[in-house]
Structure formats: C-alpha cells, structure tokens
Amino acid sequence: MKKAQTLGELKRSNYRTVRVKDEMRANLIRKLSAGEPVFPGIVGYEDSVTPQIANAILSRHNFILLGLRGQAKSRILRSLASLLDNEIPFIAGCEINDDPLKPICHACALRLQECGDATPIDYLPRQLRFVEKLATPDVTIADIIGDLDPIKAARGGHALSSELTIHYGLLPRANRGIFAINELPDLAGKIQVGLFNIMQEGDVQIKGYPVRLPLDVALVFTANPEDYTARGKIITPLKDRVGSEIRTHYPATLEQAMQITAQESWTERDGSGRIVIPPFIREIIEGVAFEARQEKKIDKRSGVSQRMPITCLENVVSSAERRALIHGEEKVVPRPSDIYEALPSLTGKFELEYEGEMRGADNVARDIIRQATARIFKKYFDNVPLHSIVQWFELGGTLKYAESAPAEEVYSHLKKIQGLFEKTRRWGSRPKTIPRSWWRGPSSFSRVCTL
Question: What residues contact residue 357 under an 8 Å CB cut-off, 6+ apart?
Fold first, then answer.
C-alpha cells in the first residue's frame, strides 16, 4: 500500500492519532495474547520484573527501574522500543516529530496554515523514537528541555520570547516516543523540576519565558535504590509523578546466571581449535559472582555486576586458548587454574569495604574463587569417598605442574594419584542442583583438594 506523502493523503487514508502510551499498551496486549516474550534475551525476570513492567505499561504509567549495576536495566529500557509501531507519520522537517493532525509546534502550525493539505509528510521509524540520556551533574536545562537561540531570532526577525527561536532539547525531540534517563538522581534539582512540569502540566520556562509543550512521550528512568531513596538526591514532586517503581535483581539461581553468561559471553572463536568448556568451570565462574555478592569485604551497595562472570569466562577461555596455541593443542580446555589467571576481569567489578581495602582486591578475589570452588566441589563429590586420594597425599605424594603446562604433562602427573580417575568418572553424569540457600552465607566446606 502506498504511503501518504501529504497531509491531504493522510486524512483520506483514515489515519487516526494514537498516543504513545496507548500504542505501547496495544502492542503489549498483542504480544501477551500471542504468547510472545515481552523482552527476548532477558533471563530470570519472567516471574518478577517483567510482569511489573507489563502492569505499568498497561496502566500507561511512567516508571523507574531501581537496581544495582549489571541488572539489565538499560537493556530493558532499550527493549521498550519493540512495543512501538514500525513507523509513524510526522510533518516533514519538524524537529519534534509533530503529529500532522494535532501539531503542538508553533512553526508547524504556521506551516499548516500556509500549505494546508499539501503539507509534506515524512515517516519516523521506531528505532529513532527511543531517546536515551545518561544523567550527570553537568547536564543543563538546555540539554533536556531546550534554550533560546539568538541566531534564529536574528535571522528570522523574531522576538526572543517567540517559540520560533527555541532550539529544542532531547525531551521535546523525543516527542511521540520514549525518553529514557539513566541514573535519574544525578540530575540537578532544576532539571528535575523541568521534568515534572512536562510530565504533569506540559509546560516549561525557558530563559524566563513560559512555553507550552504538551508533549506525547513515555518517560522511563533507572536509578540505584540507595541514591533514589536518599534525601536530597531526588525531589519529592518528581518522585510522586512516577507511576510505578520496579525493583530489579541479580539472577536468583545458578542455572539462570549461567544461561545469561552463556548468552552474553564471547566463547565461540575462530582459528583457535575446538573450545570445550567443562560444566564445572562454568559453575565455578558463576559461583564467584554469587560468593562476591555475599562477601562482607565487598560493598553491597554498589553490587556485583552480572558482567563479572561474563568477562571472567571470556578471560578464562583466552587463558586456555593461549596455552593451546603455545603447545599446538587442537582442543582448548579451560582448567580451574585459569580462573586465577582471570583476576583482572574480577577485581574491577566490585567495590571494597574498609576490611577488604586492607586485604587488597587480588586477595579478596582469590578468596571468593576458593569459596566458589569449594561449593562446586562439594556439589560433585559430597557423597563420594575420597579417602584413597587423601591418603596418597598424606603418605608423601606431591603434585606440582606449571599453569602453562600442556595437557599431556598434566595428565601424566594426575594418573599417578591412586584412585583419582576412578572417582572422577562420574563428572560425565549430571550432578545434583545447587540449592539457593547455599549462596546465602559462607561455605562450611572450607578445604578443597585443588588439582
């Protein structure tokens, strides 16, 4: 079907204006009715966060996602664009995507008076209807709302108080779309005042001149819970105008966390042999994140991002890849020792409390690797008698090899340990699931035989 190119053609096509929140609501209803996932690729929120976001959209609310870093907040906001129509018509050349049937821009109103039904129409795709801004203390009201442009005034012969002299900011340019602000509490107070005026009254003052801007926009925000609730970080009138406050969280189970890490990490690599990652390596890496979130030496207010196990797994694979390339091995198989080689991908992902600062980031990271290894070791060998292996060491047996040693050399050392390979055959079977309660406190299995 040919698209309308002028206002007259658009009217004859029986086009009807739909406000952006009604548009999102209609598309969400269609997705839910068809059984489609609301946010494809978002794991672990199916029974918690996603239903609350759906409720907010069905209620036509502006909403905020409260959560620590690495909880997919920004990814969820960007996924909201999938609830918009493929494209919408707007008056060609308009800076704020004005609706041809209900213009709010003064320049567009004058243009309609001049051209009438011959006014040209253009189309705005959904990807351009999502506008995102990271809040920082240096953001100005001109960045968000707009400012008077003296050059426009001089060239057009307009008074500075005229709307025709306005250079629009990000929020008006998001008209008929979604405007997202990350880390909302970092905005200065006067910017927050401008936001809630737009949300409620649809007007704002620019350089002392009142400007009526009844924008059609869905506002969504993210924030750290502590910043959002702290006095002085966010003004009460703005908080009162946010329709829904939704809390995000880290993965609740090891299985969910492993699914996210497998989905997001880069492990399928060309030119480096066949990569084989043992399941217990993935579990230890994920367990490191769970342990870190419970570790008293790590600041829980800043959180431990889900990016930690993602970057850790990539570094672990790279360590094994480097070793395989050096020794000309066809298979790239990570070892537990490779997790220690991935310390640089761990230490930058958490903030330390005073006790942790005294101990040092590297030592804290090594501690949580040992704790995670102990838990996974217990998962596999909780009911397996290991007396023969322990006895071998107690009788003077030793095991020493370089971290960069090839697989054949390591194998030659391991086969000397009596009963080792007999006890480890069951690693090929599926082990029992780790209870969630395991990750709520320190491990009671404090000693582990590291091979």
Answer: none
- Is there a single domain that holds both residue 329 and residue 237? no
262 and 330 fall within a common domain: yes
Per-residue pLDDT at 426? 62
Cβ atoms 323, 275 nearer than 8 A? no
Angle at which helices 49-58 and 20-34 cross, to 10°: 130
Work out the average pLDDT over 145-163: 74
217-223 vs 177-182, strand pairing mode: parallel
Cβ atoms within 10 Å, residue 243: 13
- Residue 181 placed within a domain: yes
pLDDT tens digits, one per residue of 256-301: 999 999 999 999 887 667 899 999 999 999 999 999 999 999 998 8
* Domain match, 352 and 215 both: no
Same domain, 40 and 122: yes
Coil/strand/helix, residue 123: strand
Contact assessment for residue 196 and residue 241, using Cβ atoms and an 8 Å cutoff: yes
pLDDT digits (tens, 9 = 90+) for 65-76: 999 999 999 999
If asked whether residues 260 and 211 sit together in one domain, one would say no
What is the dihedral angle through the alpha carbons of 323, 329, 333, 334, rounded to the nearest 10 degrees? -10
Q: 54 Cβ partners below 8 Å, 6+ apart?
A: 28, 32, 38
Residues whose CB is less than 8 angstroms from the CB of residue 16 and which lie 6 or more positions away in sequence, other chains included = none
pLDDT of 358 = 92
Give the global pTM. Answer: 0.86
Cα–Cα distance, 161 to 264 (Å, whole number): 51
Identify whether 2 is part of a domain. no
| Dihedral (Cα; 2, 34, 74, 195), 10-degree rounding | 70
* The residue to which tokens 């003052």 are assigned: 205
Total domain count, the chain: 2
Per DSSP, the three-state class of 74 is: helix
Q: What percent of the chain has pLDDT over 70?
A: 90
Identify which has the larger pLDDT, 435 or 168. 168
Distances (CA, A) of 404 to 111, 243, 334, 362, 450: 72, 56, 11, 20, 16
Q: What CA–CA distances, in Å, run from 21 to 17, 62, 150, 215, 237?
A: 12, 9, 35, 12, 22
| CATH number of the domain enclosing 15 | 3.40.50.300
The DSSP symbol for 120 reads: B
Q: Is residue 266 a part of any domain in this protein?
A: yes
| Token pair for 296 | 């008293």
Q: Which of 198, 223, 247 lies at the terminal end of a domain, its last residue? A: 247
In a domain, residue 212? The reply is yes
**What residue type is assigned to position 292 of the chain?**
A
Which residue type sits at 23?
A: E
Instruction: State which of 247, 264, 296 marks the end of a domain.
Output: 247
